[in-house]
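User: Need the bound-state model for beta-D-glucopyranose:
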Amino acid sequence: MGKKRWIAQCFMLSAFVVGNMSCVFAADARIEERVDSVLRLMTLTEKIGQMNQLSNKEDLTGQQLEYFDTETLIRAGQVGSMLNVAGVEKVRRYQEMAVNDTRLHIPLVFGLDVVHGFRTISPIPLAESCSWNMDLIEHSARVAAVEAAAAGLQWTFAPMVDIARDPRWGRVMEGAGEDPFLGAAIAAARVKGFQGDDLSAENTIAACAKHFVGYGAVEGGRDYNTVDISTQRLRELYLPPFEAAARAGVATFMNAFNELMGIPATGSTFLVRDILKGEWNYDGMVVSDWGSVAEMIVHGVACDKSEAARLAVTAGCDMDMEGYCYVSALEDLVRKGVVPESLIDDAVRRVLRLKFRLGLFDDPYRYCDTEREKRETLSADKRDAVRSVARESIVLLENREGILPLNKRYKSIGLIGPLADNPDDMLGSWCAWGDGRDVVDIRQGIEQAVGKSVAIRYAKGCEVEGDDRSGFSEAIQLARECDVVVMCLGENRFMSGEGASRTRLTLPGVQRELLQKVKETGTPVVLLLTNGRPLVLDWEKENIGTIVECWQLGVEAGNAIADVLFGKYNPSGKLVMSFPHNEGQIPVYYNCKSTGRPYIPNERYVTHYQDCPNEPLYSFGYGLSYTRFEYGDVALDKDILAEGDTLHVSVPVTNVGDYDGEEVVQLYIRDLCSRITRPEKELRGFKKIALKRGETQVVEFEVSFSDLEYVLADGSRVWDPGTFELFVGGNPDVVKKASFELK
Ligand code: BGC
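Assistant: Bound-state model below.
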């Protein structure tokens, strides 16, 4: 990527506010004609075949509910799409079956979870989001798209844009954290990255906004569990990133597994027909989640496949992923007059539209070029791009002792911990065709960075899980003999992701104990964390002065971490999800609402815990740098805002430390009196800037009248006159305030 010295990005709400405007795609008349011409030729059976998606049986990403002979079904025109098939050779083989052997020669569309890279694995999305760098995030999705498209794929089941406030839920690693405003910006960036400007180009792929909707709110953080949130909360918190994705032109949506207010999302007319396809006028395609049509039987709202199929197609689910309900039941339902054929036509139109947009009807083998596949897979430019993303994803949590960046003082470094010499766990969950052999792990990255001038010694100490302490003594001895210890602790990659909810979020196994013992040696310790969710780090924060949140950074993990450790890159990441003090504090997030009894120290009858603060241990928006930034006073160009006005906000930011660095300047607002309760603080803008040592920049934001509106449960957008507070800062506890009136 052409690296910009100055990263100046400004995201204000107006980019995502859509009010009642409808748009999404300007339907291409030529494509619509072609869709209709194909539809006219199709029998009912062929139409329903297009609504069926099957997985490659060798690479399942869910439980297989039934067994069918895929090849026979494809040849019979009973399959419209496949998932989990990748690589030009395999894709071509299945595509030939569809194109050569079916009556209408309609090509298949091939999808895969390219969530953070195809083969050149990039940081997990939660990590990447901590860069707050939209160009970088877009580019990262572009890199993944180019490589995936070269491997024959045309569709990724990403981005996951579920807002998540509960780190017990393992899928937080796939998302962009807890904030709807930032989540919306990231959703749009990732969609643009995957899809580019032209979906039919051979190096772009269709994206999929998932999981629609509310999946991040599963009770207790237990995957697939019940979701019951108010329509108000749905609109203000969970829908904005989906709406932003739709506005950015995302080609597809995926239903969620969960129920919402008593109705499984896959069968929810309110969510899909009314909001997505109605209010937002979305003309793309909706795919179910894996088996989620059939799961409505298990949810207990359908007594058989036929009823499940009827509920789903009525609600607006266009394609049944591995559920076998549509192919087995829809034809009969239409023939009996239970389901109108117009609903089938609507769904099939959306499937065909996608295939036309991807250019598959012009050339079904457009994505099947073996030369391109060889050239693009793991190419050097992709690794470079992923390294830039990886180092910008790292969040410096503590540097109280000024140990970092490590300098020449340290002649011997002791590398300790189960994640130091461990390529596989750098890949994270959902790593598609990623391969541990492609990874530069932490040990390799550090060894390459220091060359022969510094002695690197290694002791594993313990495993990620379990209670085996037999490696402790070697690790402790090593710590005693080295100038500094770099401890690599955290989670393995399968401890987060789908089906990976956890109730204990401290360092697993005996890792904390090992850390305590190493700390007792008196040798300075740098704690490097590799994990897929916010952890409980209460003891660590108190006792370890140097903590770096590295997440799971992908194939360039070791190089990116070495760049940060030795000061080649000054960390600039800011958390996008709050870290709790302990599990009992969950959910904890920055944008909470004021209660009728706000916290007052030493008062009993106010909102508080007796044994834990209300605030998170590390909040959304927090992250340190090797340098320090000082904020001057916030200036507003007016005190009173009337309809149609724009407020200009400016604040001088100076780099007063010893290193050049980057800062994420964040702007929050608070509406002091409104007709419904509003958060105490809401992100409404951010800019990432680079400042040389001693340099000052006046950072400017524009807040428009519509940025101060909010949504009500019925979907209308309103504002209230009165006072607003505005906060600008780079860390939650370092903020400058101002206020203004809305008239
Ligand atoms: C997940 C989806 C994924 C699908 C296909 C499901 O289990 O929930 O996010 O896209 O599998 O792999």
